[in-house]
Design goal:
25% of the residues lie in helices and 25% in strands. The strands form three sheets. It has a six-stranded mixed beta sheet, with helices on one face. Strands 6-7-8-9-12-13 form a six-stranded mixed beta sheet, with helices on one face. The structure holds 4-methylsulfanyl-2-ureido-butyric acid (CDT). 4-methylsulfanyl-2-ureido-butyric acid binds next to loops.
């Protein structure tokens, strides 16, 4: 592998059922971390909420959810083997989990851990999808707005493993602002985990569009920000509730260089060229030269449509 190449692995998880223990989830992550390291990975990306089933699909009280699915510390006794193995193999990782903070607040969180098992970056999910009320008519719930607060750390980028790594979580990948805020901090690689149900409870959407929009979002954002993206699914049927796979490594060209083939535990790998984005960064997406922030004010002034339009020219 030449000096410029960065070994990136994405470790997709198949289903985690309600009855599965956190220990069994960690054992699966440990096994995939070993495989990632054996294939030359410097960093392995695990999914969103990787230690439990995707519990926001179930109606329950916040207290119940907290007792059953949240981590009050990280590393925790149950995740310590992951940190120990990362250190002994010299590999970094991204991990998503439900965080109960010291002040009692709850977040949908991910961390970046370096090859010495130090937590170097924490991200708390900002674009929380779903609802907070009970929808008994729906086939399942999507209660992220009930169980989690909106993240309060912003979108960060961390120097690690010889490059600049940004992180986000699932629904964030559909929003161009997520990636632009990170690319303005010189992110070269953005990693994320996701749990994307195959059915939309809010409107009828053919399942094939779920995969299309997932890949479209990442391909467009990788290209428009000249960065690499590594995205890890938790997928397959969790107790009868199906979620899409499609874990992928996407290049700054917008091309997919690796994609999972199953809906099970599966490691994908690419030796990625960290110079591949340079042409885009230096030319078509030379931000310093071509961006026009004086015309982008509405991006931060308006949440949505509804305030007055631009004055009409007579
Ligand atoms: N976990 C998560 O954020 N899931 C959402 C489902 C939203 S429905 C469009 C996602 O964006 O995949």
């Amino acid at each position: 592998m030449t000096k410029e190449r960065f070994g990136l692995a994405v470790a997709q998880l198949g289903p985690i059922h309600l009855s599965d223990s956190r220990e069994s989830a960690v054992a699966r992550l440990v096994e995939m971390m070993r495989e990632a390291a054996s294939r030359g990975a410097k960093l392995v990306v695990f999914p969103e909420l990787a230690l439990t089933t995707f519990f926001p699909r179930y109606w329950m009280s916040e207290e119940d959810a907290e007792a059953r699915f949240f981590e009050p510390s990280m590393p925790s006794p149950v995740t310590q083997p992951l940190f120990d193995l990362a250190k002994s193999l010299g590999i970094g990782f991204y991990l998503g989990y439900a965080e109960r903070a010291a002040d009692g607040r709850r977040f949908n969180t991910s961390i970046l851990v370096d090859d010495q098992a130090n937590i170097v970056g924490r991200y708390r999910k900002i674009h929380l999808p779903g609802h907070s009320d009970h929808k008994p008519e729906a086939p399942f719930q999507h209660l992220e707005k009930k169980f989690f607060e909106v993240g309060n750390d912003g979108f960060g980028v961390w120097p690690m493993l010889g490059t600049n790594v940004g992180q986000c979580i699932c629904n964030d990948r559909r929003w161009p602002e997520t990636f632009r805020v990170m690319s303005l901090q010189d992110a070269r690689l953005v990693v994320l985990g996701y749990n994307t149900p195959s059915w939309n409870i809010h409107w009828t959407e053919p399942p094939h569009l779920r995969m299309f929009h997932h890949l479209l979002s990442m391909q467009a954002n990788a290209y428009q920000n000249a960065l690499w993206i590594g995205a890890a699914a938790k997928c397959g049927s969790e107790d009868g509730f199906h979620m899409i796979g499609g874990s992928a490594i996407v290049a700054p060209t917008g091309e997919i260089v690796a994609q999972s083939q199953s809906e099970e535990d599966e490691v994908i790998f690419a030796a990625i060229d960290m110079t591949l984005g340079d042409n885009f960064r230096n030319h078509v997406f030379n931000f310093a030269k071509h961006r026009r922030p004086e015309h982008y004010g509405l991006i931060v002034e308006r949440t949505g449509v509804g305030t007055p339009l631009a004055p009409q020219v007579e």
